[in-house]
Amino acid sequence: MRHALSIEPTPTGIARAPEVAAPYLEISDLWKSYGDFVALRDISLSIAKGEFICFLGPSGCGKTTLLRAIAGLDLQSAGRILQGGRNISTLPASNRDYGIVFQSYALFPNLTIEQNIAFGLENTGRSRAEIATRVTELLATVGLSEQSKKYPAQLSGGQQQRIALARAIAISPGLLLLDEPLSALDAKVRVHLRHEIKSLQRKLGVTTIMVTHDQEEALAMADRIVVMNHGVIEQVGSPTEIYSHPKTLFVADFIGETNQFPAMVLKDGAVEIGHSAFDCSTKDLAAGATATAVVRPVDIIPHGAHAHVVSAVDRPATPQNLIDAEVREMEFLGMFWRTRLTAPRLGERTLVADFSVNAVRRLNIETGGVIQVEIPRDRLLLFPRSA
Questions:
Q1: What is the third-level CATH fold of 25-252?
Q2: Hey, which family's this protein in (predicted)?
Q3: What are the pLDDT digits (tens) for 98-132?
Q4: Domain spanning 258-384 has what CATH number?
Q5: Higher pLDDT residue, 362 or 319?
Q6: What angle is formed at CA 195 by the lines to CA 190 and CA 199, rounded to 5 degrees?
Q7: Do 69 and 45 contact (CB within 8 A), yes or no?
Q8: Does residue 312 surpass a pLDDT of 50?
Q9: Is 324 exposed, middle or buried (0-12, 13-18, 19+ CB in 10 A)?
Q10: What is the C-alpha to C-alpha distance for residues 22 and 278, in angstroms, rounded to an integer?
Q11: Rounded distance, CA 270 to CA 278, Å?
């Protein structure tokens, strides 16, 4: 979350910067070990009040372990956790200010829906009338007012998850923790519910952390994504930063689809792939360094058999890294065609490209045809690799 910085004059006329608000949740130098196995290694992270954060990574990367440490369900081996300026590092889970939703919903099967939601409110000192009012309000918030007398087994998976969410926010916690809350649902319900959760989070303004292994889910819901691998944080950034400007090869490969080619830096601004030179930002890599060149299928631009590009102001534009390619396979995926191309300039390697339905129709792209495609210079990414 970014804040505009303005300079305020002091009474003496000397300009000073305003104080920057402290993070709501601050994790410092956190480690977690199980015997000789290190599950979390030197994790430091700051989260602003009201942010929606996703911990994203493959199974076993440490994302759930980190969530459980924040919740006090599995204390860290070392490190500190502050919530709202309060040190909660060694507090038991019952003394921490959060609500949590598990993948399995964890609803009480012998209690009605309204009783499930009221469960966490009964030890808060509220009267029965206050609890009933709050339950009614929460049922309306998640759109299940008519289901109050039913039992969990009588509801669909998506409805049960909404009830679990209502129960988690019933006590108005400062922090909402979601442990893969959508993974047990079918695809259409997942898409619908992720919009509902994000909308509810914005309405409540509650700081939220969600664990997921689903890249699309994280990209659609998060203000910032924390990409984890082997117990460390690989990168923290907005969805667009993570997708468009990955800092490591792991992040580039894990978030979305990629083409990867062995490459060698020729000079500043040029790289060799398949014995051909391509324009590319070489960052800090010296000439002669080996690298992995990465381009996403969606970033490859088709130009038909003869390239002719017209800019937004109707002036001819020169395509970058234009190559001839043969269309070997085409797979229709609804909103786009996934094509597999071979190109002499890339050697024997296959180039996967995603073309819109309109582009395929307009350029008459078909299996066995020859086209030209462009690999934009700023979308050809380089990552160092050992020789």
A1: Rossmann fold (3.40.50)
A2: Belongs to the ABC transporter superfamily.
A3: 999 988 888 999 999 999 999 889 878 889 999 99
A4: 2.40.50.100
A5: 362
A6: 145
A7: no
A8: no
A9: middle
A10: 46
A11: 6
